[in-house]
Amino acid sequence: EEKEKEREKLPPIPSASSAAAGGLERGAKNQFSTFSNFITTINQKKEGIGNRNSPTQLVIPNIKNVRELPPICLDVRQKQRISIDTLPQELKAPIPPEPSFPIRTKTVKDFQDDVEKAKSSGDWKAVHYFYSTTFDSFLEISAAFKKDTNSPFNTIEDSGINAKFVNVVFDALLNTPQDVQKSVLKGIINGLLQEWKGPRTKDDLRAYCILLQNPQFSNTSTYVIYAHLLRQIAALTEADHHFLVHWSKKISQKRFKQLVDRLLQFISLRLFPAKPEEFPPMVKCTWWIPSATKVLALCNAANSLISPPIISYTDFYNSTLDHIDLMEEYHNWQCYGNSHRFSFCQYPFIISIAAKKVIIQRDSEQQMISIARQSLVDKVSRRQKPDMNMLFLNVKVRRMHLVSDSLDELARKRADLKKKLKVTFVGEAGLDMGGLTKEWFLLLIRQIFHPDYGMFTYHKDSHCHWFSSFKCDNYSEFRLVGALMGLAVYNSITLDIRFPPCCYKKLLSPPIVPCDHNTLVGICDVTLDDLCQIMPELAHGLSELLSYEGNVEEDFYSTFQVFQEEFGVIKSYNLKPNGDKIPVTNQNRKEYVQLYVDFLLNKSIYKQFAAFYYGFHSVCASYALLLLRPEEVEILVCGSPELDMSALQRSTQYEGYQKTDLTIQYFWDVVLGFSLDLQKKLLHFATGSDRVPVGGMADLNFKISKSETSTNWLPVAHTCFNQLCLPPYKNKKELKQKLIIGISNAEGFGLE
């Protein structure tokens, strides 16, 4: 009975269950000693000191955005605490003194020498002793790997961890005998079962930071221990998380990537275990995935603090989530928000762009169905005959008046923007099965973005468009462009638009349209890097100003004023009140550059971009936008720049040809040997864009048709259907020559 009471005081490591122990044994095939043996050892140690120590109440703080963790018998502990508090003073056990910080003097060189000696002699005693003592407690871990035991290292800038020593010790660990590896795991369990007396110290946080890098946790047989480590880290206070985030950003790229991959693998295998018997039942460890995701969020925060980031944001994607019920996750998130009910949508960085596209498409479809159903109900309630056309957004335009007709149609049918889009060209007998819609987008975008139209300025250095700052009376055409982008996302059309990344950052500022129309929209924090993506020469000049070592005021003779040409007239604008009278000096040049960049990218184009913003969100207003990064919005609108011609070859359909025909074999031999520039030209020639949809090359539905024309003719493309018409050229040389001529002169009839 006494033992049972003592066991109740321990954190619930799968209830010290035989199932967990059995799963560990089966997963490791007796590689490690059983988990129950570890628990027994700890119990014996606790029983030995039970008469001296009063039990300490363990409180797990609430964790935001994470499922509620299983109870830890707090009611029992509370009763025990009260009963002990009511004891007479003479019966109370004295409080033991704080343990003194151990001194460890072993260096990297000493450890490496010990390992080499052990490998040559087969005597691993010294190495075994090092591992068993080092990982015996959190205090020992911190002492062994601390750069200087005399320094507290209590700042976020320096963790005080000897990273080289940690890497060497963990690299050697997996090549040591099994009893050495078992001793490390046993020591980690000792640390995790420790009864905490108050808040964590920085030495504890250092130990957590080090243990997260343990490569043993890549093995599923250690997942029970790993889960409890992650749970404790997830339950730390926000201040402790702040330290861990800043310390984690100092981890090398290789180790950081391994840490992230380990966490992603843990989540994947808990969702879809290869051997379910290896783990406790899901109902007993519902906190595993929320805890791991919370720790992964700390890594993502650390990654975002550095520019450029340690690893790409796509390295946080977990493609396993593509195979779960994403809409259930999305609806849970919509219903419960960031409450204690866990949803992966609370941590959108882990959801791949393909999965986010599915969420957005299904959300769009549901909105389309809802709007169409409401239209049908309204029609029937008025006793009018239903018409199938009422279920669609029908756009009728004349080719000669494409922009004005499109603007009128979208303005007149604003209530129908969330219906399925169908386009009709007046005077043409064509049914829109997708081709006419794509052609309408292509023609409209080309016309609107033409320099002569004056809405956008094309910057040759950066190969992108930016909003014209010219003032006008009506900004409705900018709203049209925004609505076009929204319709493209809504109807899964990839557009050939070249906006800089800054544009998509502004488009999500804020991601949900504010109710108060006086709230500024499309305004975001911009930097010199953002300007460099649009006007690299100007950005370089401003960068030179910041690094200039001479007297800025005397040599540049500038003020807080900028000049712009509008229709042949030079106009001046103050960057701040009385800016024309404030000289730019060495002391205020940073402020000048920041105000200049903000003026160019925010203030000077505010009305244009606000109209564009409202146009986009008039179609795409959805909570799903909260899941997206600016880079992901760009990919949804324009597709990905990553080309994989081998994937295109595998998914291509043929009409009049077989994939074994010589002409087809010549074609792919030529295309796979093209430079990236020529491959992009081919894709643009055949599809109207040199970028790839979110779903990859397979989503292009690319088709090669046999053209029954003379082999003297060039290839022909139908961009509305992603179709290439290829004459049966007699040899590879002729095919390559005609193909290059065709794709290199696909615009302006070769005159540009």
Task: Give an account of the 3D structure.
- The chain has 752 residues and is α/β, with parallel strands linked by helices.
- The chain folds into 4 domains: 108-316, no CATH class; 360-506, Hect, E3 ligase catalytic domain fold (Alpha-Beta Complex), CATH 3.90.1750.10; 528-617, Hect, E3 ligase catalytic domain; 645-745, Hect, E3 ligase catalytic domain (Hect, E3 ligase catalytic fold, 2-Layer Sandwich).
- It has helices at 2-8, 18-28, 35-49, 74-85, 108-121, 125-134, 138-145, 163-173, 178-192, 202-211, 223-234, 238-248, 253-271, 288-304, 326-336, 353-381, 402-412, 435-448, 476-490, 501-507, 528-532, 536-547, 552-556, 589-601, 606-620, 630-638, 645-651, 662-673, 676-687, 732-744, and strands at residues 392-397, 420-425, 456-459, 464-467, 561-566, 569-574, 653-655, 703-706, 716-718, 723-726.
- The strands form 4 sheets. The chain has a 4-stranded mixed beta sheet, with helices on one face. A two-stranded parallel ribbon has the order 1-2.
- Helix 11 packs across helix 14 (288-304).
- The termini are far apart.
- 33% of the residues are buried.
- The model is unreliable at 3-98 and 748-752 (pLDDT under 50).
